[in-house]
């Protein structure tokens, strides 16, 4: 595996790969890799000739009071894990490499962003689609891999690829979980021991909702109430949102039908955790 830090060098590598007709699988990350990231890389390795992973903590995705400076970083560990997962090239640009000057063009996410995480993080998905537009142009992947844990991001990326006609196949990969059900996340390291013991309750509440729906419950309000009560009674976290929406459109529902997402975000003292399930209904 080779680590590259400049756009010019990675573009030269891409040109060489493309000349041999090899397929490129791409996994964009913000680093501090965990098993969720590695599952994306391993799937990309199975399905492509060459795997490229980017590590870039994108400042445009962080709001004024969010954790850009304290976001966990460990490049040496990330290099070791990425190579072990079958990655061929690790692209690790600096902020000045990706944003060398004030942009003359703005990329904005207009749809699928006023709910879930986007509602409380204005501008966050503008940052996501901006950096992905840059990375898709630089890497020119055949397939791009994203975890379903951030289902809103997957929906927004689908819109980006379709609207701008990127010749990229989006590959959503199931959420990887700890043995107790907690979705793996770089932010889990910020949980206290007590919070770490409580955090699996988030997924437990989603499973309760799934069971209710499977048994025929169709009241959005009742299902949301059960989820909220479970989390509030069994954790010290503060609920950011509990929502049930169509997927991937992320529209509010008067009745539960088609593909739906049940999504939750919970704030602990130093970490904000998200989780979701999607269901297919008649």
TrEMBL record:
<dbReference type="InterPro" id="IPR004821">
    <property type="entry name" value="Cyt_trans-like"/>
</dbReference>
<feature type="binding site">
    <location>
        <position position="176"/>
    </location>
    <ligand>
        <name>ATP</name>
    </ligand>
</feature>
<comment type="pathway">
    <text>Cofactor biosynthesis; (R)-pantothenate biosynthesis; (R)-pantothenate from (R)-pantoate and beta-alanine: step 1/1.</text>
</comment>
<dbReference type="GO" id="GO:0005829">
    <property type="term" value="C:cytosol"/>
</dbReference>
<keyword id="KW-0436">Ligase</keyword>
<dbReference type="GO" id="GO:0005524">
    <property type="term" value="F:ATP binding"/>
</dbReference>
<feature type="binding site">
    <location>
        <begin position="184"/>
        <end position="187"/>
    </location>
    <ligand>
        <name>ATP</name>
    </ligand>
</feature>
<feature type="binding site">
    <location>
        <position position="153"/>
    </location>
    <ligand>
        <name>(R)-pantoate</name>
    </ligand>
</feature>
<comment type="similarity">
    <text>Belongs to the pantothenate synthetase family.</text>
</comment>
<feature type="binding site">
    <location>
        <position position="61"/>
    </location>
    <ligand>
        <name>beta-alanine</name>
    </ligand>
</feature>
<dbReference type="GO" id="GO:0015940">
    <property type="term" value="P:pantothenate biosynthetic process"/>
</dbReference>
<dbReference type="InterPro" id="IPR042176">
    <property type="entry name" value="Pantoate_ligase_C"/>
</dbReference>
<feature type="active site" description="Proton donor">
    <location>
        <position position="37"/>
    </location>
</feature>
<keyword id="KW-0963">Cytoplasm</keyword>
<protein>
    <recommendedName>
        <fullName>Pantothenate synthetase</fullName>
        <ecNumber>6.3.2.1</ecNumber>
    </recommendedName>
</protein>
<comment type="function">
    <text>Catalyzes the condensation of pantoate with beta-alanine in an ATP-dependent reaction via a pantoyl-adenylate intermediate.</text>
</comment>
<feature type="binding site">
    <location>
        <begin position="147"/>
        <end position="150"/>
    </location>
    <ligand>
        <name>ATP</name>
    </ligand>
</feature>
<dbReference type="InterPro" id="IPR014729">
    <property type="entry name" value="Rossmann-like_a/b/a_fold"/>
</dbReference>
<comment type="subunit">
    <text>Homodimer.</text>
</comment>
<dbReference type="Pfam" id="PF02569">
    <property type="entry name" value="Pantoate_ligase"/>
</dbReference>
<feature type="binding site">
    <location>
        <begin position="30"/>
        <end position="37"/>
    </location>
    <ligand>
        <name>ATP</name>
    </ligand>
</feature>
<keyword id="KW-0566">Pantothenate biosynthesis</keyword>
<keyword id="KW-0067">ATP-binding</keyword>
<keyword id="KW-0547">Nucleotide-binding</keyword>
<dbReference type="InterPro" id="IPR003721">
    <property type="entry name" value="Pantoate_ligase"/>
</dbReference>
<dbReference type="GO" id="GO:0004592">
    <property type="term" value="F:pantoate-beta-alanine ligase activity"/>
</dbReference>
<feature type="binding site">
    <location>
        <position position="61"/>
    </location>
    <ligand>
        <name>(R)-pantoate</name>
    </ligand>
</feature>
